[in-house]
Amino acid sequence: MTYYQRSGQNSPYHYSYASAQAYDYSQSHDLDNILERLLNIRHTGSRYCRLTLNECIYVANQAMRVFYREPFVNESFSMPCKIVGDLHGQFVDFLRLLSVCGYPPDTSYVFLGDYVDRGPNAIEVLMTLYIYKIKYPERVLLLRGNHECPRINAMYGFMSECTMRFGFSVYTAFNDSFAYMPCAAIIARRIFCCHGGIIKDLETLEQITTFNPRPIHDPEIKSTVTELLWSDPNRSFDGWAENYRGAGYLFGETALTEFLDKFNLDLLARAHEVMQDGYELFYDRKAVTIFSAPNYCNQFDNAAAVMSVSADYTCGFVIIRPISYEFPLTRVDEVGGPGLHQSPPYVAMASENSTYALRGATEANKSSGPETQGKKNEKTSVAAYHAD
Ligand SMILES: [Mn+2]
Protein backbone atom coordinates (compact mmCIF):
# COMPACT_ATOMS: atom_id res chain seq x y z
CA MET A 1 0.00 0.00 0.00
CA THR A 2 1.35 3.38 -0.95
CA TYR A 3 1.89 6.34 1.26
CA TYR A 4 -0.82 8.16 -0.58
CA GLN A 5 -3.42 5.45 -0.02
CA ARG A 6 -2.51 5.20 3.66
CA SER A 7 -3.13 8.88 4.10
CA GLY A 8 -6.79 8.31 3.20
CA GLN A 9 -7.10 11.87 2.03
CA ASN A 10 -7.71 13.29 -1.36
CA SER A 11 -5.12 16.02 -1.40
CA PRO A 12 -1.35 16.13 -1.20
CA TYR A 13 -1.75 18.82 1.47
CA HIS A 14 -2.52 15.99 3.86
CA TYR A 15 0.90 14.44 3.43
CA SER A 16 3.23 14.77 6.34
CA TYR A 17 6.47 16.53 5.57
CA ALA A 18 9.25 14.03 6.08
CA SER A 19 12.10 16.20 4.88
CA ALA A 20 14.93 16.96 7.25
CA GLN A 21 15.82 20.17 5.43
CA ALA A 22 13.33 23.02 5.64
CA TYR A 23 12.51 25.13 2.64
CA ASP A 24 13.67 28.70 2.89
CA TYR A 25 10.88 30.84 1.43
CA SER A 26 12.96 34.00 1.52
CA GLN A 27 15.57 32.68 -0.87
CA SER A 28 15.34 33.17 -4.62
CA HIS A 29 17.53 31.34 -7.11
CA ASP A 30 19.31 32.03 -10.37
CA LEU A 31 17.30 30.10 -12.96
CA ASP A 32 19.96 30.52 -15.66
CA ASN A 33 22.52 28.96 -13.40
CA ILE A 34 20.30 25.95 -12.64
CA LEU A 35 19.49 25.53 -16.34
CA GLU A 36 23.16 25.67 -17.25
CA ARG A 37 23.93 22.91 -14.77
CA LEU A 38 21.06 20.80 -16.10
CA LEU A 39 22.12 21.16 -19.73
CA ASN A 40 25.73 20.59 -18.75
CA ILE A 41 24.83 16.95 -18.17
CA ARG A 42 25.36 16.67 -21.96
CA HIS A 43 29.09 17.05 -21.44
CA THR A 44 29.74 15.43 -18.11
CA GLY A 45 28.26 12.01 -18.77
CA SER A 46 26.63 12.12 -15.35
CA ARG A 47 23.13 10.80 -14.92
CA TYR A 48 22.15 13.26 -12.19
CA CYS A 49 22.35 17.01 -11.79
CA ARG A 50 23.43 18.46 -8.46
CA LEU A 51 20.35 20.31 -7.34
CA THR A 52 19.23 21.41 -3.91
CA LEU A 53 15.90 20.99 -2.17
CA ASN A 54 15.50 24.77 -2.12
CA GLU A 55 16.08 25.07 -5.85
CA CYS A 56 13.53 22.35 -6.65
CA ILE A 57 10.78 23.84 -4.49
CA TYR A 58 11.52 27.36 -5.71
CA VAL A 59 11.24 26.32 -9.37
CA ALA A 60 8.09 24.27 -8.71
CA ASN A 61 6.46 27.22 -6.95
CA GLN A 62 7.41 29.66 -9.70
CA ALA A 63 6.06 27.31 -12.38
CA MET A 64 2.83 26.91 -10.42
CA ARG A 65 2.35 30.69 -10.55
CA VAL A 66 2.77 30.62 -14.34
CA PHE A 67 0.23 27.78 -14.69
CA TYR A 68 -2.17 29.66 -12.45
CA ARG A 69 -2.20 32.59 -14.86
CA GLU A 70 -2.71 30.37 -17.92
CA PRO A 71 -6.08 29.26 -19.25
CA PHE A 72 -7.03 25.63 -18.64
CA VAL A 73 -7.45 25.20 -22.40
CA ASN A 74 -4.81 27.24 -24.19
CA GLU A 75 -6.15 28.52 -27.50
CA SER A 76 -3.52 31.14 -28.21
CA PHE A 77 -0.48 28.98 -28.94
CA SER A 78 0.72 29.53 -32.47
CA MET A 79 2.83 27.82 -35.11
CA PRO A 80 5.49 26.86 -35.92
CA CYS A 81 5.99 24.54 -33.02
CA LYS A 82 7.03 21.04 -32.05
CA ILE A 83 4.70 18.67 -30.22
CA VAL A 84 6.29 16.23 -27.79
CA GLY A 85 4.73 13.13 -26.21
CA ASP A 86 5.55 11.17 -23.06
CA LEU A 87 9.01 11.77 -21.53
CA HIS A 88 8.72 9.70 -18.33
CA GLY A 89 11.84 10.86 -16.54
CA GLN A 90 14.25 9.87 -19.32
CA PHE A 91 16.38 13.00 -19.02
CA VAL A 92 19.27 11.77 -21.15
CA ASP A 93 16.84 11.10 -23.98
CA PHE A 94 15.15 14.44 -23.41
CA LEU A 95 18.50 16.20 -23.85
CA ARG A 96 18.99 14.32 -27.11
CA LEU A 97 15.54 15.47 -28.18
CA LEU A 98 16.41 19.10 -27.44
CA SER A 99 19.72 18.88 -29.25
CA VAL A 100 17.94 17.50 -32.33
CA CYS A 101 14.85 19.74 -32.31
CA GLY A 102 16.26 22.94 -30.84
CA TYR A 103 16.11 24.79 -27.55
CA PRO A 104 13.51 27.29 -26.36
CA PRO A 105 12.95 30.10 -27.11
CA ASP A 106 14.24 29.47 -30.66
CA THR A 107 11.96 26.46 -30.92
CA SER A 108 8.42 26.54 -29.53
CA TYR A 109 7.17 23.42 -27.83
CA VAL A 110 3.92 21.84 -26.77
CA PHE A 111 4.52 19.00 -24.33
CA LEU A 112 1.67 16.54 -23.95
CA GLY A 113 2.38 15.40 -20.39
CA ASP A 114 3.72 12.36 -18.54
CA TYR A 115 7.00 13.95 -17.49
CA VAL A 116 7.40 11.83 -14.36
CA ASP A 117 7.40 8.15 -13.30
CA ARG A 118 8.99 5.04 -14.84
CA GLY A 119 12.28 6.69 -15.79
CA PRO A 120 15.09 7.64 -13.38
CA ASN A 121 15.34 11.45 -13.75
CA ALA A 122 11.91 13.00 -13.56
CA ILE A 123 13.25 15.78 -11.35
CA GLU A 124 15.80 16.85 -14.00
CA VAL A 125 13.13 16.66 -16.71
CA LEU A 126 10.70 18.77 -14.68
CA MET A 127 13.32 21.30 -13.62
CA THR A 128 14.40 21.86 -17.23
CA LEU A 129 10.83 22.13 -18.51
CA TYR A 130 9.77 24.40 -15.67
CA ILE A 131 12.68 26.80 -16.09
CA TYR A 132 11.93 27.10 -19.80
CA LYS A 133 8.27 27.64 -18.93
CA ILE A 134 9.07 30.36 -16.40
CA LYS A 135 11.53 32.09 -18.74
CA TYR A 136 9.52 31.76 -21.97
CA PRO A 137 5.85 31.17 -21.06
CA GLU A 138 4.70 32.02 -24.59
CA ARG A 139 7.09 29.57 -26.25
CA VAL A 140 6.62 26.51 -24.08
CA LEU A 141 3.32 24.88 -23.24
CA LEU A 142 3.22 22.12 -20.64
CA LEU A 143 0.04 20.06 -20.60
CA ARG A 144 -0.81 17.66 -17.83
CA GLY A 145 -0.57 13.89 -18.27
CA ASN A 146 -2.22 11.17 -16.23
CA HIS A 147 1.04 10.69 -14.28
CA GLU A 148 1.00 14.30 -13.08
CA CYS A 149 -1.33 13.21 -10.30
CA PRO A 150 -0.28 12.03 -6.81
CA ARG A 151 -2.63 9.04 -6.98
CA ILE A 152 -0.48 7.71 -9.84
CA ASN A 153 2.98 9.16 -9.24
CA ALA A 154 3.01 7.88 -5.66
CA MET A 155 3.15 4.39 -7.14
CA TYR A 156 5.22 4.55 -10.32
CA GLY A 157 8.51 6.06 -9.21
CA PHE A 158 8.25 9.81 -8.80
CA MET A 159 7.54 9.77 -5.08
CA SER A 160 10.48 7.46 -4.40
CA GLU A 161 12.76 9.62 -6.55
CA CYS A 162 11.80 12.80 -4.68
CA THR A 163 11.90 11.35 -1.20
CA MET A 164 15.17 9.48 -1.68
CA ARG A 165 16.98 12.46 -3.19
CA PHE A 166 15.50 15.41 -1.31
CA GLY A 167 12.55 14.67 0.92
CA PHE A 168 8.82 14.72 0.81
CA SER A 169 8.48 18.49 0.48
CA VAL A 170 9.89 18.38 -3.07
CA TYR A 171 7.33 15.73 -4.02
CA THR A 172 4.54 17.85 -2.56
CA ALA A 173 5.74 21.03 -4.24
CA PHE A 174 5.77 19.40 -7.68
CA ASN A 175 2.33 17.87 -7.15
CA ASP A 176 1.00 21.25 -6.06
CA SER A 177 2.23 22.67 -9.36
CA PHE A 178 0.57 19.82 -11.33
CA ALA A 179 -2.77 20.82 -9.80
CA TYR A 180 -2.68 24.04 -11.84
CA MET A 181 -1.31 22.65 -15.11
CA PRO A 182 -3.44 23.28 -18.19
CA CYS A 183 -4.93 20.12 -19.69
CA ALA A 184 -5.59 20.92 -23.34
CA ALA A 185 -4.58 23.26 -26.14
CA ILE A 186 -5.81 24.19 -29.57
CA ILE A 187 -3.02 25.17 -31.92
CA ALA A 188 -3.87 27.59 -34.68
CA ARG A 189 -7.55 26.75 -34.13
CA ARG A 190 -6.91 23.45 -35.93
CA ILE A 191 -5.06 20.94 -33.78
CA PHE A 192 -6.55 19.76 -30.50
CA CYS A 193 -3.79 18.70 -28.10
CA CYS A 194 -4.17 16.71 -24.89
CA HIS A 195 -2.50 13.75 -23.22
CA GLY A 196 -5.13 11.00 -23.63
CA GLY A 197 -8.11 11.74 -25.79
CA ILE A 198 -11.36 13.50 -26.50
CA ILE A 199 -14.32 14.07 -24.19
CA LYS A 200 -17.62 12.25 -24.56
CA ASP A 201 -20.77 14.39 -24.66
CA LEU A 202 -18.99 17.75 -24.73
CA GLU A 203 -21.25 20.56 -25.88
CA THR A 204 -18.91 23.53 -25.86
CA LEU A 205 -15.16 23.84 -25.44
CA GLU A 206 -15.76 26.29 -22.60
CA GLN A 207 -17.25 23.43 -20.59
CA ILE A 208 -13.78 21.92 -20.22
CA THR A 209 -12.82 24.96 -18.16
CA THR A 210 -16.09 25.49 -16.32
CA PHE A 211 -16.40 21.83 -15.29
CA ASN A 212 -12.86 21.79 -13.88
CA PRO A 213 -12.05 24.62 -11.50
CA ARG A 214 -8.40 24.51 -10.44
CA PRO A 215 -6.56 23.43 -8.39
CA ILE A 216 -7.25 19.80 -9.28
CA HIS A 217 -4.92 17.63 -7.22
CA ASP A 218 -6.38 14.27 -8.15
CA PRO A 219 -8.99 14.39 -10.91
CA GLU A 220 -12.23 12.55 -10.20
CA ILE A 221 -12.52 9.24 -12.02
CA LYS A 222 -15.69 10.43 -13.74
CA SER A 223 -14.77 13.87 -14.99
CA THR A 224 -13.97 15.61 -18.24
CA VAL A 225 -10.37 16.19 -17.14
CA THR A 226 -9.94 12.44 -16.57
CA GLU A 227 -11.22 11.81 -20.08
CA LEU A 228 -8.65 14.23 -21.49
CA LEU A 229 -5.84 12.58 -19.52
CA TRP A 230 -6.74 8.91 -19.80
CA SER A 231 -8.74 8.12 -22.95
CA ASP A 232 -7.40 6.00 -25.82
CA PRO A 233 -8.45 5.28 -29.39
CA ASN A 234 -10.67 2.28 -29.78
CA ARG A 235 -8.94 -0.19 -32.06
CA SER A 236 -11.48 -3.02 -31.85
CA PHE A 237 -14.66 -1.36 -33.04
CA ASP A 238 -16.05 2.04 -33.89
CA GLY A 239 -17.77 3.96 -31.12
CA TRP A 240 -17.31 4.64 -27.42
CA ALA A 241 -16.36 1.94 -24.92
CA GLU A 242 -15.14 1.61 -21.36
CA ASN A 243 -11.37 2.03 -21.16
CA TYR A 244 -9.48 -1.06 -20.03
CA ARG A 245 -7.29 1.30 -17.96
CA GLY A 246 -10.23 1.97 -15.65
CA ALA A 247 -10.43 5.67 -16.42
CA GLY A 248 -11.53 7.65 -19.45
CA TYR A 249 -13.04 6.06 -22.56
CA LEU A 250 -12.03 4.31 -25.73
CA PHE A 251 -13.13 6.38 -28.73
CA GLY A 252 -13.65 5.19 -32.29
CA GLU A 253 -13.21 6.99 -35.58
CA THR A 254 -16.81 8.19 -35.79
CA ALA A 255 -16.63 9.60 -32.28
CA LEU A 256 -13.45 11.47 -33.15
CA THR A 257 -14.84 12.78 -36.44
CA GLU A 258 -17.94 14.07 -34.67
CA PHE A 259 -15.80 15.80 -32.06
CA LEU A 260 -13.54 17.45 -34.64
CA ASP A 261 -16.45 18.53 -36.85
CA LYS A 262 -18.39 19.91 -33.91
CA PHE A 263 -15.57 22.22 -32.89
CA ASN A 264 -14.24 22.89 -36.39
CA LEU A 265 -10.91 21.14 -35.78
CA ASP A 266 -8.72 19.06 -38.10
CA LEU A 267 -6.52 16.89 -35.96
CA LEU A 268 -6.19 15.37 -32.52
CA ALA A 269 -2.56 15.25 -31.28
CA ARG A 270 -2.23 13.05 -28.20
CA ALA A 271 0.34 10.86 -26.45
CA HIS A 272 -0.22 8.23 -23.73
CA GLU A 273 0.65 5.05 -25.67
CA VAL A 274 4.09 3.70 -26.56
CA MET A 275 4.61 3.52 -30.33
CA GLN A 276 7.29 1.48 -32.06
CA ASP A 277 8.22 4.32 -34.44
CA GLY A 278 7.45 7.02 -31.89
CA TYR A 279 4.23 8.03 -33.58
CA GLU A 280 1.17 6.68 -35.30
CA LEU A 281 -1.26 8.44 -37.58
CA PHE A 282 -4.68 6.86 -37.48
CA TYR A 283 -8.36 7.41 -38.23
CA ASP A 284 -7.63 8.65 -41.75
CA ARG A 285 -4.96 11.04 -40.48
CA LYS A 286 -7.38 12.80 -38.20
CA ALA A 287 -5.47 11.69 -35.12
CA VAL A 288 -1.87 11.13 -34.15
CA THR A 289 -0.22 9.49 -31.16
CA ILE A 290 3.20 10.90 -30.26
CA PHE A 291 5.52 9.15 -27.85
CA SER A 292 8.89 10.72 -27.04
CA ALA A 293 10.63 8.31 -24.67
CA PRO A 294 12.86 6.00 -26.74
CA ASN A 295 13.78 2.60 -25.33
CA TYR A 296 10.84 3.07 -23.01
CA CYS A 297 11.64 1.73 -19.53
CA ASN A 298 14.45 -0.26 -21.14
CA GLN A 299 11.72 -2.79 -21.91
CA PHE A 300 10.90 -1.63 -25.43
CA ASP A 301 13.16 -0.87 -28.39
CA ASN A 302 10.83 1.85 -29.62
CA ALA A 303 11.96 5.07 -31.27
CA ALA A 304 10.85 8.48 -30.02
CA ALA A 305 9.08 11.00 -32.22
CA VAL A 306 8.38 14.70 -32.19
CA MET A 307 5.77 16.22 -34.47
CA SER A 308 6.73 19.49 -36.05
CA VAL A 309 4.01 21.83 -37.22
CA SER A 310 5.31 24.46 -39.59
CA ALA A 311 3.87 27.89 -40.26
CA ASP A 312 2.32 26.68 -43.52
CA TYR A 313 0.23 24.11 -41.65
CA THR A 314 2.37 21.18 -42.66
CA CYS A 315 3.19 18.46 -40.17
CA GLY A 316 6.30 16.32 -40.18
CA PHE A 317 7.95 13.96 -37.77
CA VAL A 318 11.43 13.89 -36.30
CA ILE A 319 12.35 10.37 -35.26
CA ILE A 320 14.93 9.77 -32.58
CA ARG A 321 16.19 6.21 -32.69
CA PRO A 322 16.84 4.28 -29.50
CA ILE A 323 20.46 3.78 -28.59
CA SER A 324 22.35 1.97 -25.91
CA TYR A 325 23.77 4.28 -23.25
CA GLU A 326 26.90 2.18 -23.04
CA PHE A 327 27.77 2.62 -26.70
CA PRO A 328 31.08 4.55 -26.89
CA LEU A 329 30.44 7.79 -28.69
CA THR A 330 32.17 11.10 -28.89
CA ARG A 331 32.18 14.35 -30.79
CA VAL A 332 34.63 14.76 -33.67
CA ASP A 333 35.72 18.25 -32.66
CA GLU A 334 36.27 17.32 -29.07
CA VAL A 335 38.07 14.01 -29.34
CA GLY A 336 40.68 13.88 -26.65
CA GLY A 337 39.02 16.56 -24.57
CA PRO A 338 38.77 16.08 -20.86
CA GLY A 339 36.43 13.33 -19.82
CA LEU A 340 35.04 12.89 -23.30
CA HIS A 341 35.57 9.18 -23.35
CA GLN A 342 32.50 9.23 -21.14
CA SER A 343 30.57 11.43 -23.52
CA PRO A 344 27.00 10.23 -23.45
CA PRO A 345 25.43 9.16 -26.72
CA TYR A 346 22.89 11.96 -27.10
CA VAL A 347 25.74 14.31 -27.89
CA ALA A 348 26.56 12.28 -30.96
CA MET A 349 22.97 11.86 -32.05
CA ALA A 350 22.36 15.41 -33.17
CA SER A 351 20.66 16.49 -36.37
CA GLU A 352 21.37 15.37 -39.93
CA ASN A 353 23.68 18.27 -40.63
CA SER A 354 25.87 17.77 -37.61
CA THR A 355 29.52 16.94 -37.73
CA TYR A 356 29.32 14.26 -35.12
CA ALA A 357 30.80 10.85 -35.59
CA LEU A 358 30.59 7.70 -33.62
CA ARG A 359 33.91 6.54 -32.26
CA GLY A 360 34.44 2.95 -33.25
CA ALA A 361 31.15 2.87 -35.08
CA THR A 362 30.73 0.68 -38.14
CA GLU A 363 29.74 2.08 -41.51
CA ALA A 364 26.28 0.65 -40.95
CA ASN A 365 25.94 2.56 -37.71
CA LYS A 366 27.04 5.76 -39.36
CA SER A 367 24.64 5.53 -42.26
CA SER A 368 21.66 4.81 -40.07
CA GLY A 369 22.89 7.17 -37.39
CA PRO A 370 21.40 10.60 -37.10
CA GLU A 371 17.71 10.27 -36.38
CA THR A 372 16.73 8.30 -39.46
CA GLN A 373 16.63 9.63 -42.96
CA GLY A 374 13.46 8.18 -44.46
CA LYS A 375 10.94 9.00 -41.76
CA LYS A 376 12.29 12.48 -41.18
CA ASN A 377 11.12 13.60 -44.56
CA GLU A 378 7.71 12.12 -44.26
CA LYS A 379 5.20 14.89 -44.23
CA THR A 380 1.51 14.84 -43.85
CA SER A 381 -0.72 17.74 -44.65
CA VAL A 382 -3.42 18.32 -42.12
CA ALA A 383 -6.66 18.47 -44.04
CA ALA A 384 -8.16 21.65 -45.48
CA TYR A 385 -5.88 24.10 -43.76
CA HIS A 386 -6.05 26.65 -46.49
CA ALA A 387 -9.83 26.53 -46.74
CA ASP A 388 -10.31 29.80 -44.93
MN1 LIG B 1 -0.06 8.52 -20.05
Name the descriptors.
EC 3.1.3.16; alpha/beta; binds manganese (II) ion; 14% strand; Calcineurin-like_PHP; protein serine/threonine phosphatase activity; disordered N terminus; 388 residues; six-stranded mixed sheet; Metallo-depent_PP-like; 28% helix; disordered C terminus; 13 helices; Serine/threonine-protein phosphatase; Purple Acid Phosphatase, chain A, domain 2
Describe this entry's structure for a reader.
It is a single chain. The protein has 388 residues and is an alpha/beta fold. It has two domains: 32-322, Metallo-dependent phosphatases (Purple Acid Phosphatase, chain A, domain 2, 4-Layer Sandwich); 325-374, no CATH class. It has 13 helices and 15 strands. A six-stranded mixed beta sheet has the order 1-5-6-10-12-11. Strands 4-3-2-13-14-15 form a six-stranded mixed beta sheet. Helix 2 (31-39) crosses helix 6, helix 4 runs parallel beside helix 9 (168-178) and helix 8 (158-165) packs across helix 9. The radius of gyration is 21 Å and the shape is globular. 45% of the residues are buried. The structure holds manganese (II) ion.
Mean pLDDT: 81
From the alpha carbons, calculate the radius of gyration and give it in angstroms: 21 Å
Second CATH tier, the architecture of the largest domain:
4-Layer Sandwich
Strand order of the largest sheet: 1-5-6-10-12-11
CATH topology of the largest domain: Purple Acid Phosphatase, chain A, domain 2
Count, helices: 13
Overall strand count: 15
The CATH class of the largest domain: Alpha Beta
- In CATH, the homologous superfamily of the largest domain goes by the name Metallo-dependent phosphatases
| Low-confidence blocks of residues | 1-20, 326-388
Describe the sheet with the most strands.
6 strands, mixed
Give the cofactors and ligands. manganese (II) ion
Give the count of structural domains.
Answer: 2
- Shape field: globular
Run of helices and strands: HHHHEEHEHEHHHEEHHEEEHEEEEEHE
